[in-house]
Amino acid sequence: MKQFIPTPYNTKESIGWVVRHVTGPSKKHRGLVNGMPHSHELNHGVNVKHRLAIVGDIMTIRKGSVEFGQRLREFIKGSDYLVGNFEGTITDAVRPGLGLLFEERHAPRIIDALADFFAPEKTCLCVSNNHSGDFGKAEFFRSIELLEAEGFRLFGWLERPHLDIENSFRLVCGTMWTNKPCDYICMLKGAEDNIRPGVFNLLYPHFGYEFELYPRPDIVELGGKLTQKFDALVGHHAHCPQPVASRSAGGVNKLIAYSTGDFLGSYKTKKYQYGMIIKAEIGTSPDGSWLMGRAEWRLTRYVPGPKGRITVDISDDKLFT
Length: 321
Hints:
By secondary structure, this protein is an alpha/beta fold. The protein has a single domain (39-314), classed as Purple Acid Phosphatase, chain A, domain 2. Helix content is 18%, strand content 32%. It has helices spanning 11-23, 70-76, 99-102, 109-117, 136-149, 217-227; strands at 39-41, 47-58, 66-68, 81-86, 89-90, 105-106, 123-126, 153-155, 162-165, 169-175, 200-206, 232-234, 244-249, 252-257, 262-264, 274-284, 290-304, 310-314. Strands 1, 2, 3, 4, 7, 8, 15, 16, 17 and 18 form a ten-stranded mixed beta sheet that branches. A six-stranded mixed beta sheet has the order 9-10-11-12-14-13, covered by helices on one side. Strand 16 and strand 17 form a beta hairpin. The longest helix has 14 residues, at 136-149. The protein is globular and about 55 Å long.
């Protein structure tokens, strides 16, 4: 299976991957995680220092333009930084075979779209994911250069496994999967080695399984272990949103979001169009330790329209039923 379809999974998992993409997202393991309300104060008495907005996978927009809706813009208003997973490579390289179907190729227009949504110098993009190796090392780093030239802040390769923000909090990443051999990006294993003492450490991992509305037991177990070490965890890779929850560790309530779905893409089929945006307060407790205060989340949806124009906005649809 893997030699024909470049998935990161074994044959059995690859078959399941195909089935879910045909039939729709799986609802198996519903009830394993208790999701929190759209707005929830994880810890009381937090002296807020930063407001962070986090989205999921930024997928290919093949042509046309992007418009961000008023409700979405209102929701992120007041955020100091935006974090997203940049899935794919900005390239015009031509690949033979099935590459056109299974590789994530960005056009340069993605730069203007992201810059229109949030200030590039305040936008933090993770590039450690299963599509990082689609076009090889040279094109991967060329894509990074194009984004950094416009002011975006990137992290996710071996020389930059984390990103420090204002000397107050650190973004750490790592991927559980790669579609192709890729020895220059950060893997999830060993991510805790990048924790920085004395600041807020948020893990932003590419993990779990695609097209499942609820995380599997092994992912819930892994997430629990990681939140014992990190101050919060917000994941991506499933290409559909999964519940946002709170877990207690060491007397502190910590945010754990297993998948923020797809923030941006160009699929015309509705089942692919959902994402999640999380807005969280980061600050200090009376004793000076870093922790998260209030967190809010909303479903998002991108909708391709005439002439390739894509609209992204808050969605009132119900997925977790």
